[in-house]
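Why do we care about 3D structure at all? Because function follows from shape, and shape follows, mostly, from sequence. That is the central idea of this module. The next example makes it concrete: a single protein chain, its amino acid sequence, and then its structure expressed as C-alpha cells.
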Amino acid sequence: MSDQEQQILQAAAIGKTFVQQYYTLVDEHPRRPDVISALYKDSARISWNGNPILGRQGAAALLSSMPWSWHKVQSFDSQPVLGSALPGQPCSVLVCVSGICSHSSDTLKAPMIVDDRSEPTVAEFKARENESELLPRVFSATFMLVPLTAQEEALALQQGLNLGLVLETTRTNKPPPRYWIVSDAFRFVG
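And the structure:
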C-alpha cells in the first residue's frame, strides 16, 4: 500500500474518531468552554455562522456565551491534506460534517433531543412549548486538523497540559498523534 493510500485510510479513521469525540464533548461536558478550547491552536481561525472568532480564547468565549446544545451528525467525510506530512508522519486532515443542531433556551436545561428520528413529534413540541425551545436546525461544519509538532507535544507534557485531541487510529508501538483544530467553519444551513 502506498503512503498516499495509507494517509487516506488514516484520515478516514481520524475523521471518525474526531467527530465522535468532538460532538460528545461539545454536547455533554460540564466544563466545555475549557475542554473544547484546549483543542484549538492559539492561532486558530473560527467562523461561527459567518462571525469571525480568533484563537483558543475566542473559542472559550464563544462556548461560554452559548446555551447547551445537542448535535445529531448525519454525515461526515474526511480526507488527508496531501503533501502536508513526510512519509510515515501524520498528515493534516480536512473533516466535513453535516447534521442537526438544537440549542436550549436555558443554559441549565438540555435542548430538545429527538432520539434517532430526524423530526420531533407534535407531542414532543407541545410538551416543551412553554420553554421557548429553539427548533432543531440543519448545520454544516468544516474542520482543519493538524498534528502537534514534537515541540508542542514536549511542552504540553512538561507543563501537564492536555492540549490538542488524541486521535488513536491504529494499535502500534508509537503513541497516537495529537491534533489541533486550526480552522473551524460552522454554518446553519436552513
